[in-house]
Amino acid sequence: LLLMFVMWSVMMVAMMIPSAVPMILLFTKINRTRREREDSALPTATFVSGYLLVWTVLSALATLMQWGLDEAALRRLILCVVEAEARTVHYLGLILADHETVLDLNRAYLAHDYLTDVLSFPLRENGYLGEVVISAPTARRQARRYRHRVEEEVKLLLLHGVLHLLGYDHETDRGQMARREHTLRRRLGLE
User: Fold this and answer.
1) Please, are residues 191 and 185 in contact by the beta-carbon 8 Å criterion?
2) How many secondary structure helices (H) and strands (E) does the chain include?
3) Is 141 helix (H, G, I), strand (E, B) or coil?
4) Which residues contact 111 (CB under 8 A, 6 or more apart)?
């Protein structure tokens, strides 16, 4: 989840630029005043790091609140699936993305020219399982279609994505992934 937080930060930089200009002007004014009083200036790295941290925390909280997502519940789901498969994982990235991003990733990395609801990119290195990318608009639409909450749909897609990261492939495994997913849905109360 720490990695998810870092990746969120990187993805939000483009959206952050308009709000950064007033903050940079404020930082410049504070440092000019400090120099006039012969105080030491704030290091630029301290300002940038603090700004990124505050902006990222606020934007992550706003998104979680907007979606009604419970980070602890998502973490429990991931741990339950990983433990059920007798694996140890320290990091897993979860990204909620727009249609265009999911389509671009699907084209670039899987050579599929269509939109999908969830993508998985396994890494399996140093305790890092990989990345799960969920199409936020698709999750919202599917939640309406199946008449459950968006959080429920995100959990279902996350479960599916984590199983892919753990090596399951519903396109080649003759129903093994579908059976495992059904079992875990029941265990997690997602039916």
Assistant:
1) yes
2) 7, 3
3) helix
4) none
